[in-house]
Amino acid sequence: MLVLKFGGTSMGSAEAIKQVVEIVKEKAKESSVILVVSAMSGTTDLLLNCGTKAANDDESYKEILKQIETRHLDTVKSLIPVQQQSSVLSMVKKLCNEIEDICNGIYLLNESSLRTKDKLVSYGELLSSTMINAAFNSNGTSAVWKDARELIRTNSNYSNAIVDFAITNQQIKDFVSSTSQKIIVLPGFIASDADNITTTLGRGGSDYTAAILAAAVDASALEIWTDVSGMMTADPRWVPNAKIIPSISYQEAMELSHFGAKVIYPPTIQPVLSKNIPVWVKNTFAAKDHGTVIENKSDSTNIITGISSINSLALLSLEGSGMIGIPGFSSRLFAALANAQINVILITQGSSEHSICVGVDVASAARAKEVVDKTFEYEIATDKVDPLQIEEKLSIVALVGDQMRHHTGISGRMFSALGRNGINIRAIAQGSTERNISAVVATDDVRKAVNVLHEEFFETIQKQVNLFIVGTGNVGKRLLAQLKQQQGFLEQHLRLHVNIVGLSNSRKMLINENGIDLNKWDELLQNGEVSNLDQFVQSIIKRNLRNSVFVDVTANAVIADVYASLLEKSIAVVACNKVAASSKLNNYKKLKHLSTEFNAPFLFETNVGAGLPIIGSLNDLMRSGDRVHRMEAVLSGTLNFVFNHYDGTRPFADVVKQAQDEGYTEPDPRLDLSGTDVMRKILILAREAGVQMEMEEITCNGFLPESCVKGSVADFYEAMKKEEAHFKAIFDKAHAENCKLKFVASFNDGKASVGLQHIPPQHDLYHLYGKDNVVLFYTDRYKEQPMVVKGAGAGAEVTASGVFADILRAAQK
Ligand code: ADP
Ligand code: ASP
Ligand code: MG
């Protein structure tokens, strides 16, 4: 004998029911079949909703009833040949009329007890099982319908009734032996008490109905047919990379379902486990897929079999100095909760015995406080115990696996993966079987936690980094092109999937959690929403995706202002924007501190020398204990370009324009020409070398005449033209000494300055061409001969590649 159970989606339409009929007919060729079905998907919720509305005097329940009736009648019309429809239609109509009578009763009385609700929801399964039974018989396959309420006896704990197995097993056996039918159809979920009043077995309870039947008849197997191809390593609605678990032990399946894997209703395993009946989880819509087999053993080679989570948890803490060393506190606590029928989901106790912490469903929290405070009334009055504390909006995330007990360090890996992603753990619990490690986290973090852990334990093959990029100018465009070009390489060689989730420029913004298509990002962005930085940032924070990196490829101070709010949510920041790192010392220090505290990289290598490894090399020196005494540097690609190209034959303004057109300058070229940009860079280097410096402390020996500093960028070009003689004189003077002009940044013993210098041919800085940058580091270890970093220090392509490298560093933290 086989017991098959089909869930709500499998019964969700005439098409789906036809599939079910085919599957069952195939099975019935080899064995007798007991078929248990759920209500059509969504029906139980709709019925409950009708009841609530009716009880609240809201007449709109009638519209919902109409919807339910139409859906069922339409299904019959598509499912059953016209000639045989009328009797089925009238059965369905009759059941729907009964539902209406019940709802009208609730509406009149303005009251709906759990008992009434059970009666009301029972119609979902009554309807679906009636329909599929008719489908068999109309199709020439004989089947018999049996009311599960005549077989399954429970107590009167409506909505979550407890089965009386002695009576139930006997009734099932008697019935099954009395019928010679090969296919028996039963409604799942419903049962009855000693007075024949309808009860239900808890939401999702049709699985349990099937398991009770399977155990009672010693079935050869129980098959749970649903809409996924088996039990998966995590909830597939949250973790797109979740994988099917081909084989799993009863204990693991129980732990996973108890901790939230909705695919099986938790009590389902118990009856079949004691009879050693294998349970299959199969997909109605892909019947050929292997599915999952749940049995005595697990073939899993993974240490972790699956990850699940429970929402709506409240943590109750009983604390007090009077508890230490005195036995009996915990038994009184648990007795109080048990007497109030409050189910304890998780327990932890600190070794100091100063507190006990239990997790319960949030719906029971207020009641728990009432009964526990009452139980410890005396101790609370005498200050030995504090009143029960309740913390809500919590969830549990649990790792499950039989193999865990043979391996050390799993909890360490779990907690550090969560920690790296800024997920705070409120409490932890590990069962003594070591089959389950549970962590309590904020509900806002639970989806992220499940993904982080899935990545940690199942996706060594691939890690996903989620990027939010602001700025689609020269550098931004090049960065997107490089990301597009390298996506395949990164997946293959670094096992890194770079997912561009958000993109924004000053006009438009776009967010797509599944990744923005880099082949047409510009078109997609143009059709995006009007950009709003605050909304963009809030949506990054709210999404709370793992490995999130915010990438600032602008030069905009407003954008730099949002870094702190991101870092403190453990979101990494990569910036080619120099504003933050060169802002007030306090702000720079705050950002650095947030980066350390929240384990979120704050990387800005491209702030100095574009893609050249300048800041990274300096950081390496400092981390390994070196000390920087002096730095000599040419750090402005723009000024280098300008002074390498200007020889008095072409106007100075034209050469500056060329530098701007070729993309070397800041959007406002005066920032380069005035020396401000170089000041920012030497300031950043000094700070990274451990010096507490402000911008105002840097001496700037500028060369721009006053007249060039005022007005707009256009005014600036005009003014430069008028001052051509001034620039020519500067050039001629250097030329006469056989020197080149270099705009040099110096740092010496804690002091920094920038300015134009005449550089003779034998000088280290002389041979510097085009837009090259160079930095000479003189340190404890590099005393006479400096460490030199030199190369192209400006340009969109190299800057973008420096930003890219920072992104990879942030991703691999
Ligand atoms: P049915 O109506 O067939 O009983 P359910 O909706 O109760 O189906 O359960 C199946 C759903 O459970 C799947 O569609 C899936 O989204 C969800 N689910 C949650 N966790 C898991 C998991 N670990 N493995 C498989 N499915 C899961
Ligand atoms: N129809 C019931 C519910 O939705 C039982 C089930 O589907 O298993 O909870
Ligand atoms: Mg279910």
UniProtKB/TrEMBL annotation:
Reaction equation(s) it catalyzes: L-homoserine + NADP(+) = L-aspartate 4-semialdehyde + NADPH + H(+); L-aspartate + ATP = 4-phospho-L-aspartate + ADP; L-homoserine + NAD(+) = L-aspartate 4-semialdehyde + NADH + H(+)
Keywords: Amino-acid biosynthesis, ATP-binding, Kinase, Lysine biosynthesis, Metal-binding, Methionine biosynthesis, Multifunctional enzyme, NAD, NADP, Nucleotide-binding, Oxidoreductase, Sodium, Threonine biosynthesis, Transferase
UniProt-listed Enzyme Commission number(s): 1.1.1.3, 2.7.2.4
CDD domains: AAK_AK-HSDH, ACT_AKi-HSDH-ThrA-like_1, ACT_AKi-HSDH-ThrA_2
Entries under Gene3D superfamilies matching the protein: Acetylglutamate kinase-like, Aspartokinase, catalytic domain, Dihydrodipicolinate Reductase, domain 2, NAD(P)-binding Rossmann-like Domain, VC0802-like
InterPro entries: AceGlu_kinase-like_sf, ACT-like_dom_sf, ACT_Aspartokinase, ACT_dom, AK-HD, AK-HSDH_N, Asp/Glu/Uridylate_kinase, Asp/hSer_DH_NAD-bd
Cofactor(s) of this protein: a metal cation
Function statement: Bifunctional aspartate kinase and homoserine dehydrogenase that catalyzes the first and the third steps toward the synthesis of lysine, methionine and threonine from aspartate.
Family listed: In the N-terminal section; belongs to the aspartokinase family. In the C-terminal section; belongs to the homoserine dehydrogenase family.
Subunit composition and interactions: Homotetramer.
Name of this protein: Bifunctional aspartate kinase/homoserine dehydrogenase I
Natural source organism: Lacibacter sediminis
